[in-house]
Every structure is written in structure tokens, then in C-alpha cells.
Design a protein that fits this description.
The structure holds 2 protein chains of 2 kinds. Chain A is mainly α. In chain A, 81% of the residues lie in helices and 0% in strands. Classes of the chains: A mainly alpha, B mainly alpha.
Chain lengths: 217, 221
């Protein structure tokens, strides 16, 4: 009797590649949208008074203190209950982007606040308008200061994107799960998957450390 | 949207959910304690001059930091089976969390230790302290202040990461929620309650941590 399970072969390569590309795809989308939203929210938080800050902070705290996997399940169930189910990619991107935004906004808020009052006053006294000060002084200087933290958040998003598999998006970990259930070779496949994540994440984290090192000195 | 919420089913299962929350806390506290012990050893190893000692520690740290937590849990649950090691969901999640916590905390400890200038050690020695005294009274108390907040964050991360137990059928808060909702199909209600419980747990941990910090460091953190 032939085996029920078929071993891993080169025919699986396109399938794995799709998983890899999907992981990169959804992480990139989440990082870009999360960065844009985070920049806006971070700016609002750096500028607003105590009351609106507490209000916004509360909402962001919810995104940060409920596990991502619960957020994904809740969102996709909710969308399903409304009767207009979304594509797993769209649903996953929305949740992952908002989650990213919650962390990015803290990073950018720190960046905006790192540009001290005297520098802003100096810019204004040179005749720059409020928005020019934001655009030419606070944004470039503040963002440079928080670049390593931004990179740290971006890296964690790539790793967290593995969770989007729970709502059915075929990213790397889910492709590997399916291969494991067919081939029954969990160790080889998982090591391959881990190696891939490492390959993306490690060089970027080294780069982040180098930039940070340069800033301190 | 014509979805009718039925909360009674959820409240009837509250004891099980609370037990799940207890398991969540249990596994994260344990993973933190074991993680701290291993991280101290790894941090010492990483700062060693001998490559033979520092390299394994470096590899541990970089793998833990550069691959997803879910990958570690799958590795512990499915991957170790290849060596004939079959862990229960609880131990699979626990060992994965210990591995990740140890990796992150090693960097925290190393950073905290290196932030204390070595001149302080020499100064204490010149005041007649022994090495032991210098560490106990001068170096470690200062170091503890600097690593306190990163450690609190790591603990919160452990709580959130333990929710991945849902994928290997563990009975912590998420897994328990998943099991209970599959019996009644009140998915939204159950997961909303679970989300609220996670929120309360993490807020409480952060609040308690800031209270303790206020007491121990008397404000000057």
C-alpha cells in the first residue's frame, strides 16, 4: 500500500514562494498604512491637550493590550456577522495596520516631542509658519531621532504578520502548516520557515543597531 | 446588522473563562521567572571574552528576537516531535515563551549592566568594598532601576503572546474562549469578553508595576 503522505519535493517550491511573497506583501502594506496613520495620530497626540490625549491614549491602549490574534478573530467574525465578508487579505491588512498604528503613534509622538520648544520658537522667529515648522524642522529632526524605534516596530510587524494565518490568509506560516499536514515532516519545514523570517529580520535589526550606535556617538 | 447578542451564555461560563485567565497569568509568570534566570546566565555568557561561550548565547538571542513567537510555539509543539519529544500544549507554550523571554531579557540585562560605567566599580573598590559588596550595593541596585520598565513590558508581552496557545489547543484564556464558543457558536460575545479580560489584566499589571516602582524607587526613576 502506498503511503498516504507524500514527501516534500521541488514541486512545492511555487507554493512556498507564494507564502513568502504574501508575508512580505501584507507586512509591507501594514507597515506603510500603519506608518502614515501613526504619523498623524502621533502628531495629534504631541500637539493636543491633556483631555484629548487621554481619550486617544485609551483607544490606542485597547489596540496594544488585546492580543493581535483576538483582534483578528473579533474583526473577521464581526465582518462575517454583518453579512459582507471581506477577503482575508483585506481583513488582515486592516487589523494589522491599526495594530501597527497603535505602536507607531507612540514612536512618532516621541519623535515630535524630542524637538524642543526653543528650536520651534527659533524657527517661528525666523518667519516660518506653523506648518513650515512642522514640515521642515520637527518632522525631519524628530523622525531621524526615532528611526531605530520605527525599524523595531516594523520588524515586529513582519513577525506578527504570521498571525494573519488564523483568518485564512495564505502567508508563509500557513503554507508551511499545510505542507506539514501533507508531508508529516514538521521539523524540516519549520526550520526552513524560521530561517526565512531570520533572513529578513536579522540584517534589518543589525542595520538598526548600527544607526543607533552612530546616533549615540 | 441583524445579529442578536446573547450575553447570558457567556456569563454562565464565567468560571471557566476566569480559570483560563488564571492559566494565562500562570504560564506568563512562570515563563518570566524561568526566562529571567536563563537570561542572567546568557547575558554573562554574551559578555564573555571567549568566543566559545559567547557565540551560543548570541545565537539564542538572535533567533529568539528575529523569528515570530508563533514559530517557536510550533517548533516546540510540532517540531520537537521529530526527536520523539511530545510536549503537552501547556509545556509547548511555556517553553516557547521561556525561549523568547530569555532572548529579549538577555539584551535588556546586558544593556542595563553596560550602562553602569566601570569607574563606579573601581570607586567602590577604592572605598574598601569587596567585589561582592560593590555589586550588591552599587552596581545591581542601579542596574535594576534601568531594567525595571523593559522587564515590565516583557511581562505584558508574555501575557499577550500566551494567547497563541489557542493555536495548539491550550486551555489558557484564548484557548478556553475558543473551546467555549465552539460549543455555543456565540463567537463574538465570547471573544469580546476575552478581549476585555486581556485589557483588564494588562492594565492591572502595568498599574501594579508603577505602584511598585513608586515604592521601591521613591519617585526618582
Amino acid at each position: 500500500m502506498g503511503s498516504f503522505f507524500t514527501p516534500l519535493s521541488w514541486h512545492d517550491a511555487p507554493f512556498i514562494l507564494t507564502g513568502i511573497l504574501n508575508t512580505i506583501y501584507i507586512s509591507t502594506v501594514a507597515i506603510i498604512i500603519g506608518t502614515i496613520l501613526g504619523l498623524m495620530v502621533g502628531f495629534l497626540r504631541a500637539e493636543s491637550n491633556r483631555f484629548t490625549n487621554v481619550l486617544m491614549g485609551g483607544g490606542l491602549d485597547v489596540l496594544r493590550s488585546v492580543p493581535l490574534i483576538i483582534q483578528l478573530i473579533l474583526f473577521s467574525t464581526y465582518i462575517g456577522a454583518t453579512g459582507h465578508p471581506l477577503d482575508p487579505f483585506v481583513a488582515g491588512s486592516i487589523v494589522l495596520s491599526l495594530y501597527t498604528m497603535a505602536f507607531m503613534s507612540e514612536v512618532f509622538r516621541g519623535g515630535f516631542e524630542s524637538v524642543q520648544q526653543p528650536m520651534q520658537v527659533a524657527a517661528r522667529s525666523l518667519g516660518l509658519t506653523y506648518w513650515q515648522t512642522v514640515r521642515y524642522i520637527r518632522l525631519p529632526i524628530g523622525m531621524r531621532a526615532v528611526f531605530p524605534s520605527w525599524l523595531g516596530v516594523a520588524l515586529s510587524v513582519i513577525k506578527d504578520s504570521a498571525l494573519v494565518s488564523v483568518i485564512g490568509y495564505m502567508e508563509l506560516l500557513r503554507t508551511s502548516e499545510q505542507l506539514i499536514s501533507r508531508t508529516q515532516q514538521p521539523l524540516q519545514i519549520l526550520i526552513g520557515v524560521g530561517f526565512f523570517y531570520f533572513l529578513i529580520s536579522y540584517p534589518l535589526s543589525l542595520y538598526g543597531k548600527r544607526v543607533e550606535g552612530k546616533m549615540v556617538s | 446588522m441583524d445579529y442578536v447578542f446573547h450575553w447570558n451564555i457567556v456569563f454562565a461560563k464565567m468560571p471557566q473563562l476566569l480559570h483560563g485567565a488564571f492559566v494565562t497569568l500562570h504560564v506568563s509568570v512562570l515563563s518570566m521567572l524561568l526566562g529571567i534566570v536563563i537570561a542572567v546566565l546568557l547575558a554573562i555568557a554574551r559578555m564573555s571574552d571567549s568566543k566559545k561561550i559567547s557565540l551560543p548565547a548570541t545565537i539564542w538571542v538572535e533567533i529568539a528576537r528575529n523569528t515570530p513567537a508563533l514559530f517557536h510555539i510550533y517548533m516546540a509543539y510540532f517540531g520537537l516531535g521529530a526527536f520523539g519529544i511530545h510536549l503537552s500544549p501547556y509545556f509547548a507554550v511555556l517553553s516557547a515563551l521561556v525561549f523568547v523571554n530569555a532572548g529579549y531579557l538577555t539584551e535588556t540585562f546586558r544593556g542595563g549592566f553596560q550602562s553602569i560605567p566601570p569607574t563606579q566599580y573601581h570607586a567602590s573598590k577604592s572605598l574598601g568594598m569587596t567585589s561582592m559588596q560593590a555589586y550588591m550595593y552599587i552596581i545591581l541596585p542601579q542596574m535594576f532601576r534601568r531594567i525595571y520598565h523593559p522587564m515590565t513590558n516583557q511581562f505584558v508581552w508574555s501575557i499577550l503572546m500566551s494567547s497563541l496557545g489557542i493555536l495548539v489547543g491550550m486551555n489558557e484564556l484564548s484557548g478556553e474562549t475558543q473551546r467555549l464558543q465552539s460549543l455555543s457558536f456565540r463567537t463574538l460575545e465570547f471573544f469580546i469578553v476575552a478581549a476585555v479580560m486581556y485589557f483588564i489584566i494588562t492594565r492591572f499589571v502595568l498599574f501594579a508595576a508603577s505602584l511598585i516602582a513608586g515604592r521601591v524607587f521613591r519617585g526618582d526613576v
